[in-house]
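Our working data are protein records whose layout never changes between entries. An example says more than a description, so a record of this kind follows.
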Amino acid sequence: MPPSAYRLILPVWGDAYRRALLRYCLPSLLAPGNLPAVAARAGVLVQLCTKEADRQALETADLARRLRSFARAEVVTLSSEEGREGYDYFSACYRDGLERARERGEAALLLTADQIWADGSISAVCARAEAGARVVLVAGPRLLEETALPALDAFRGPDGEFADRLGPRALAALAWEHLHPWDRSLFWDESDRGRPASFQFREVPGEGFLMHCLHLHPACVRLDESVDLDFRHTVDGGDFVERAAGRPEACHMIRCSDEAMYCSTAPRGQSAHLIDEPKGDWLRYANWALSLGVSRMNLSFLRQGVRFLLKDFEAEKWAPVEARAAEVCARVRARLARPHLLLYSRAYFALDRRFGRRLRSHAGVVRLWKMIRRAMGLGY
């Protein structure tokens, strides 16, 4: 059965996140094809998960009152024991909201305060859940905060809202113009070399860009009682999607920005130390991916590219770029799609993270460690 109600879970704390939420994220969610469209066919509850110091500012904000005209909204505060800083706080907020959603039979929308969603995207994501997907995955590029946010302001109407002005093509064009330096550094070149990261980008000149991902954002999730919410790391970078979906076929991956897309924003200094990382070939990428402890679910995501369209899709212009990307990803997947290698690599890197610094102080252990790396094919 399709969900009869949705719980949108939004962690937000501190001045920076609160400003991002109220100035950009919520106005994008209030566009007619987003939350209002979903509320026209199902119940919507927005759970703002915050710290006590931010509670009053969120409850009294004008946009929060506008939200309550068509959806229920509640502000939930976590104690310092429940929610720590950074990613730990995000995960604590999502666990709280997911447990509430499961108890009430709601589907959960997992968003962040620094996301900007194109008009129509939230409705499209929910439509995929209503068609049977247990997890709906969306990939979004990161934009340079210092230039992208002023550019976004140009899309506001006299009332300060985006309304229907920020559609997928407009947001894709803005993303292309204002990509964060780190994301721009992740484009693979014509010799099929790129930097290791969860995302691979390729340009389709004059048409848009292509994105292949090991991890995507689980924008909508429908949980059953068997799912253990004690997941590792974050909802997109750990094992949460695998737990929630159970199998790759239960996931739906949005593969075209015309259907749904979002962007996040970050200041110039974020990830700046990684931009000069040397590029490598597919083997270096595969070995780097092993260090993440990737699963078969991650490899199934990597198989499928996401198109960000600046104009109408023309297959003959995209086909050569997609073919080259598919060849690289197929090599990576072939190398990693061996259960024993995934198991051994997880064990190796878990030991290395926990004991590596101490063990590497012994010459004999260093030689053994190098032998293990060579045997596993982890040298690059």
Q: What stands out?
A: The radius of gyration is 21 Å. Residues 315-336 form the longest helix (22 residues). The chain has a mean pLDDT of 87.
